[in-house]
Design brief:
This protein has 300 residues and is mainly beta. It contains three helices and eleven strands; from the N terminus they run E-H-E-E-E-E-E-E-H-E-E-E-E-H. A six-stranded antiparallel sheet has the order 4-5-10-11-6-7, sandwiched between helices.
């Protein structure tokens, strides 16, 4: 069971960075050669498969009891650990499309491992929701570049793609509040994300993270909130008119602001919240019956 004081911890931190590590602006470094996304994804995938084939995690400590805290650890399969099950036999895969500066889409393979699934399966966060997590980030060499033992809120639209798409696979748990304000979390999800550089920082070195480095995150997902970033009455995950599952690439009025951050999705001068259900009948309005709701229809 995980305990944390309620005071000041449950406020959403919208602008938080995934990594607290930063580069020293006073240091001069050689420019990094920009590599092809597709070629780099192949290189990274080979590195990740090799890593997964030669490492294991403490799977024998899971499933954990509700009242215990278990930290995920990763080690090399060798010596006394030669008989351990490699993670390559336990991971699942997710293909994540990434568009480069030239508009070329490259699918990257994200590997994820669920050590223990959370109990609130219906509350798995979407890629644009908010999650309350603790985590440890490390390189394939085992070097830890960032760690957060005390949970923190993340806005999933503001973290690297591998984290955003990875967290949706973990259900949160339950929590209760004691008389002294302490929040206790139970039966929460835990696991590991293995991401190629294209789903991380790619060519941008970040602190201890070199350019083009695949990275690994162990995560604990305690709870989540469904987001409505622009407070227009439409959940951010539902601001996806093209239905591809990624609301971040939907911009109905072409003003450069995705719908989930746009107060006036269709650019007709009437804010979305006023066009959703003007007659208050509980049904989203489509005045001209053309199949396009008014808040997405500049001609309505």
């Amino acid at each position: 069971m995980f305990h944390i004081s309620k005071s000041g911890t449950l406020a959403l931190l919208l602008a938080v960075s995934l990594s607290s590590c930063g580069s020293d602006d006073n240091n001069t470094t050689e420019p990094v050669e920009l590599r092809d996304f597709s070629e780099q994804s192949i290189t990274d995938d080979a590195l990740l498969v090799d890593y997964l084939s030669n490492h294991f995690y403490n799977y024998e400590d899971f499933p954990r009891a509700d009242d215990t805290v278990v930290t995920i650890s990763i080690d090399t399969i060798s010596g006394d650990n030669a008989d351990k099950t490699p993670m390559i036999d336990q991971v699942q895969q997710l293909s994540v499309p990434i568009t480069d500066a030239n508009g070329v889409v490259t699918n990257h393979t994200l590997y994820y491992l669920v050590a223990q699934q959370g109990s609130e399966l219906e509350k798995k966060p979407s890629i644009v929701d908010s999650t309350y997590v603790s985590y440890r980030g490390e390189l394939l060499t085992g070097t830890i570049f960032d760690q957060r033992n005390t949970p923190i809120w993340f806005d999933n639209i503001r973290v690297v793609s591998g984290f955003r798409y990875g967290l949706q696979n973990f259900a949160p748990g339950t929590f209760s509040q004691e008389a002294d304000g302490t929040i206790s979390f139970r039966d929460y999800g835990q696991g590991i994300l293995f991401m190629p550089s294209g789903l991380g920082y790619f060519s941008s070195a970040q602190g201890l993270i070199p350019a083009y480095a695949p990275i690994v995150f162990t995560v604990s997902v305690y709870t989540s909130n469904v987001a409505d970033h622009d407070n227009d009455g439409v959940f951010s995950i539902d601001e996806d008119p093209d239905g591809d599952g990624n609301p971040l690439n939907d911009d109905t009025d072409g003003d450069g602001t995705p719908n989930l951050l746009d107060f006036d999705d269709d650019g007709d001068g009437i804010i979305t919240s006023l066009e959703l259900d003007a007659d208050n009948d509980g049904v989203i309005d489509d005045t001209d019956n053309d199949g396009i709701p008014d808040y997405l229809d500049s001609d309505s």
